[in-house]
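Section 5.1 Outputs to date
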Amino acid sequence: MSIITQKIGTLEILTAEGISAAHCFTTRFGGVSTGPLESMNIAIKLDETEENVAENFRILGKALGFEISDLVLTRQTHTDWVRPVTREDCRGCFHRDYPECDALVTNTPGVALTVFTADCTPILLHDPVNGAVGAAHAGWRGTAAGIAAKTARAMVREYGCEPGNIRAAIGPNIGYCHFETDDDVPKAMLAAFGEEVRPFIYPSGEKFFLDLKEINALALRRAGVTHIECSTDCTMCQPHRFWSHRVTGGIRGSQGAIIVCNSKEGSV
């Protein structure tokens, strides 16, 4: 199984072959935003209009089968907070209107979970047995705090998922080829995961490069998730295709990871 590119007109999205729920990782292609945010931006940034963001979500909804009224978003602050949600938590397509958290889980049919990234690591989870889904945004702090594993465990705790049934997809992020840090980041990863994480830390003089995809995959495996697909794409290697905070110096839009719950038994 792998993560593949799909094109629907001008829209370009990535999907994981192992996840049967409607989902995607977005790219910069296929939206209506203009100027430095051209074209698929799904967050209020710079002088972006609410109308453009709403239309971009409508385009994605048409492709995946959801309405704006089905969305639950994250207002991300680089925490390890995982929020279980239901239909009552749907507040539309503007992340400023939501409580702080960096991950969401649900088993409510039709609810579409969304996280935002622009170098950080997006993670989508699906239990095909009972239909529950999860979405997580893992910056390096969230990665060290184990947000990937905590999202999977929340699905187990809240909805009775078996870890071995959960399918995970790790989307485009800043690859180890470009994620250069000082020693505080590798120290945080070693404190969190021990020596098992060292193969994913690459010293380079006084700096370090880290593979956040593999570190999040390690966290998922420790939570019992064994079906994991990883994108090979780096947001800094392909800034024409993905939003990258480091490349743009923060003058950017946001891509997202979206997954729609298709449970037949969840609460509504």
